[in-house]
Each structure stands twice: as structure tokens, then as C-alpha cells.
Amino acid sequence: MVAGNVSVFSIIFHHQGAQAFFNIPVDELYDQTISLRSIQKDFVDQIETDLYDTSSFANRVEILNQFLWLLFTKNGRQDEQPRLTDSLTHIDQSMEMVDINTLAKKACLSRKQYERIFKANGGVSPKRFLRIIRLQHALFKKQINPRMSLTELTYDCGYYDQSHMINDFKMLTGMSPKQYFLDYEAFSDYFLL
Question: pLDDT for 161-176, tens place per residue?
């Protein structure tokens, strides 16, 4: 049992963001909560002490900013970052309606190279990432227009047909779109208003 004050401080990286700081394939960390000590042994004792000794949130942010900058200059692999950032920008601007071959070509990579680099830097394959973004797009569309029918949503979000959308929803949420929208309010944490 925990007694007294408890303080939790976490960092959540954007897709491919952690790769810039840690010299490990991010796909090994996908969908996990990891303590800093598990992936970075240097300086952790000092960082924990510094965080514990300050009571100001702003000071904690500054301590972690300095630490991340140190990791970035020491371990960072900036060679693939511009390509992946450009890919993510392209995906966002197209509202996910882009295929992997186009993204690979735009990055000047073969499809196989692109898939390998994307997964190592982002934690998931580009195919899975595009499915997640398509689902987020559907949630966003339904969020801004709650009366939108599932058929309209299917074709507006780039699904081939309703069974395609149903399969993606079941794979990513564990339920059909109809059941999902009955049980949950549509909200996208990727495409924000």
C-alpha cells in the first residue's frame, strides 16, 4: 500500500520519436510501459535524484529536456528521421489515404527497406499504422458528424466496403463499428478539432 504523496512523471513519444533518443529498435517497445532504467542505464540515478529534489513541475520538465538532449546528441540516429517525418506529414495531409508503395517511393526506398525502417523507428509496420490512422480518421469523422451513417463513413474514410471497415474495427478495437459507436462516443486522439 502506498501512503503519502505520490508523483508520477511520464513521457509519451510521437510515432518514431523515441528512436531519436534511444539506440534500440522501437518495435521492441511497442505498446508497453517501460521504466527509463530498463532502456537507459547512464545518468538515471542522477536524473531520479534531481527530479525528486525539485518540487516544481517546470523544473522537472527542464531536467528531462536536458536529459533528452544529452541522449539525442549521444545516441540519436537522425539519418532516417527526415524521411519518416516526411512520411508522417504526407499521411496526415492525405488523411491516411495513401499506399505504402507511394510512401516508399517518396522516401527513395524500396518497399521492403521502407517497411523495415518504418517498423524499427515507429514500432509498428506501415500497414498497421495506416490501419490505425484510418480508424482514427473514422472516429474523427463520426465525432464531428455524429449522424453520419456507417456506409458514408466507410467510403469517406477510404475503406473498400463495409466488411473492410468491420474487419479493421474488430482487429483494432475488438468490436464492430456498430457496437463500438453504441458503447463509446466517437473521439479521435490523433485528429483533434
Answer: 999 999 999 999 999 9
